[in-house]
Model the fold of this input.
Amino acid sequence: MTNLRLERDLPVTPERLFEWISQTDKLLQWWGPEGITVPEYTLDLRKEGPWSTVMINADGDRYHVSGVVTHVRPPHSIGFTWGWHDDTGARGHESHVTFTVEPHEIGARLVIDHRDLDGADQAARHQKGWESTLRKLTSTIH
Done:
């Protein structure tokens, strides 16, 4: 299994950053890589339980991902499982994501730990996706 860690420093309070990673209306503004929309979702990272999103790119390709929120510790961290669905709807390999919010000299730091990825290729694809997603967060948060 392969693990991935990304960090982003943002000029907001840790409490404000936690709102942006947990409240559905804010989360949907940056969830998914650039060019992706999220028209279908059951995404509430404020409580433990199942979640699901369908992301659609500009070509109309659909990407279904789901999991279970495993912990919510405001204003510090949220953990959830992550699994892509194939074209038949079958859920594939499950990995684990933790969003951690830490105080930082410019405001707050978001740490994304994506663990138990199925090899280097999957980790590289997720890194590209998370980096694009973090660019959206950086340009959206206020």
Observations:
- The chain has a mean pLDDT of 96.
- Residues 84 and 90 are 8 Å apart (CA to CA).
- The chain has one domain: 2-140.
- DSSP finds three helices and seven strands in the chain.
